[in-house]
Amino acid sequence: MVSRISPAQMRSRRIRERMIETLLFLCAASSVLVTIGIVAVLLVESWGFFTHVPVATFLTDTMWTPLFDNPRYGILPLLSGTFLSTMVALCVAGPLGLTAAIYLSEFASPRIRETVKPVLELLSGVPTVVFGFFALLFVTPLLQATILPNLPGFNILSAGIVMGVMIIPYIASLSEDALRAVPQALRDGSLAMGATKFETAIKVVLPAAISGVAAAFVLGISRAVGETMVVAIAAGQQPNLTLDPTQPAATITAYIVQVALGDLPHGSIAYQTIFAAGLTLLLITLVFNIFGFWLRVRFREEY
Amino acid sequence: MTAMSSVSIKTTIAAKPEFKFGKNKVSANNVNVFYGDKHALKDVTVNIPEKAVMAFIGPSGCGKSTFLRCLNRMNDTIPIAKVTGKVEIDNQDIYDKALDVVQLRARVGMVFQKPNPFPKSIYENIAYGPKIHGLAASKSDLNEIVEASLKKAGLWDEVKDRLSDSGTGLSGGQQQRLCIARAIAVSPEIILMDEPCSALDPIATARIEELIDELRENFTIVIVTHSMQQAARVSQRTAFFHLGVLVEEGTTDTIFTNPNDSRTQDYITGRFG
Ligand SMILES: Nc1ncnc2c1ncn2[C@@H]1O[C@H](COP(=O)(O)OP(=O)(O)OP(=O)(O)O)[C@@H](O)[C@H]1O
Ligand SMILES: [Mg+2]
Fold first, then answer.
1. Is there a single domain that holds both residue A167 and residue A36?
2. Which of these, B181, B230, B223, lies nearest to B205 by C-alpha position?
3. Number of domains observed in the structure of chain A
4. Chain B CB contacts of A185 below 8 Å
5. Residue A26 domain-assigned?
């Protein structure tokens, strides 16, 4: 005999359901609110900064020396440092990550894939400070001893290379997902035409997965742009407008840690530079994400 | 299938002109295929005549696709598949160690059940094969190959003004003809078709069947189909598979009007399958 659900029981269930729903909503909303809060603080403090320093000066001055007696507020040296270290990282992580992805997706046996992928992902679990010291104490001396005897102790190159190694797993893993999402039917079509596995991978699978691969690269770039410890430790923390990766230089992030660790008077312009730099970083990352989104729409997979 | 349609199959057969078979293009001897422990194809021995259409029929899972994939060694791409026995094309053993599987597949084209154009332009879809095999010496050679292949596949008039559009934007029937054109572009000797019409509507199907009939002049065609009507209409020889065994093989005429084996009889009259 099945008893019917009593109205009281139904009501209590409904109330509990409503409470849970509200709780879940608050949890979700809190992360959005925190983000909005961060952006608001950035904007307000940057506003303070930009009332003292014109945006044009900020964007065009070639010196960044906010802590000097004769301060200059040109973000370009920090941008060049960020750009250079990111480019070096991408030059390392792009080819290696993509090659690893193609190997794992198209050539490796399932057993190898199941072993290698977690190991790759382990790499991203290594604390970035370890990578930083690795760059400073191993890669730089190695480069000095081999191909670049005149390399300064602090330089963008080693930092970039190690940062590249750090983001290989990201690019490899995300690209591999994109490649594997390409339907087997396309591979079969190509193989049945007499294409080799390699031709199939390069000429059919990769183009079909291009948007996912591009998204992986953009994510890798975003991460390199935001990466802090490696550059702060190994690249020298001297703002330096240069396109030569063998020079020491500071990135936006390296500057922020460096200054945030000092004891600057709250409200001073020097203090506000942190927020202006932070805002710039946020905008760059935003541009990359929008770019990634655009790529995704533009080269939408059609299989 | 109803008695009606088996009558109409007989009409179809009766309406077909007499066909004179040439020499054998493919001969398979005691071919067995195992997927792991599963014995999917058992001692298949059959000859496939050149410049004719041979149909493979049989209930689902009987091994038609498996056998088809033995003929261009696509089973090589399935790690657990193991093939034994002998398959010869023009008296050359295609499982010979010295044989280059890439060349084999250029000689033996394949069209799949679901149209699978590459996500590239119509032009690039056709140019793909000739490019990887280095068949075109110049851009104008390549243009010629593309045009000729699309014409042979009866698609030229529909796409000649939009060769740079994506191949995946075509209708299902057009996509399948594109895939046929793509296969033709490398001038294969044999074209394998695995249920090429099963994803198409009747009009697109009729179009492909016509095309197959035209292609027979120049190519050896092997087609897997679930449609008895289609087998009767397009093929000159038919082989009936059942549970991994080749039960019976003969002229399409004989298989559909006067089969030897009772299982064949049951299948073509729709008593099982
Ligand atoms: N890749 C594979 N791995 C394991 N078993 C397979 C594989 N492909 C086919 N088989 C098995 O081999 C047998 C024959 O399959 P096959 O695809 O050749 O049948 P078919 O006659 O083409 O059927 P259908 O008409 O449904 O396409 C089936 O039992 C199937 O389950
Ligand atoms: Mg099949």
1. no
2. B230
3. 2
4. 112, 114, 116
5. yes
Q: Supply the ipTM of this predicted assembly.
A: 0.89
Q: Report the C-alpha gap between B96 and B87 in whole angstroms.
A: 9
Residue ranges of the domains in chain B? Answer: 3-268
Please check whether residues A104 and A240 belong to one and the same domain. Answer: yes
Mutate to test the interface with B, among A193, A197, A202 (most CBs of B within 10 A): A193
| Segments forming the whole domain that contains residue A14 | 7-51
pLDDT band at A302 (very low <50, low <70, confident <90, very high): low
Q: How far apart are CA A259 and CA A264, in angstroms?
A: 8
Closest of A121, A246, A248, A234 to residue A176, by C-alpha: A121
Rounded CA separation A206/A179 (Å): 7
What the block records as the tokens of A216 is 């992986």
Same-domain check for residues A32 and A161: no
Spacing, Cα B41 to ligand 1 middle (Å): 9
Burial of B222 (C-beta count, 10 Å sphere; 0-12/13-18/19+): buried
Residue A77's nearest CA partner among A249, A273, A274 is A249
Q: Are residues A28 and A149 both part of a single domain?
A: no
- As a whole number, the mean pLDDT across chain A is 89
- The predicted model scores a pTM of 0.83
A196 and A244 belong to one structural domain: yes
Q: Are residues A81 and A179 in the same domain?
A: yes
CB B33 within 8 A of CB B80: no
State phi, psi for B98 to the nearest 5 degrees: -75, -15
**By the CB < 8 Å criterion, does A109 face chain B?**
yes
Distance B61 CA to ligand 1 centre (A): 5
Provide the 3-class DSSP secondary structure of residue B242. Answer: strand
* Res. B3 pLDDT band, cuts 50 70 90: very low
Quick check: is A11 in a domain?
A: yes
Nearest alpha-carbon partner for B245 in B5, B16, B31: B31
Tell whether A61 is covered by a domain: no
Residue A69 lies in a domain: no
Residue corresponding to tokens 């200054």 = A259
Which CATH class for the B3-268 domain? alpha beta
- Whether residues A81 and A123 share a domain: the answer is yes
**How far is the centre of ligand 2, averaged over its atoms, from the C-alpha of A28 (Å)?**
48
C-beta of B62 in contact with ligand 1 (< 6 A): yes
**Residue located nearest, by CA, to atom 12 of ligand 1:** B40
What's the longest Cα–Cα distance across chain B? 57
Q: Is residue B65 within 6 Å of ligand 1 at its C-beta?
A: yes
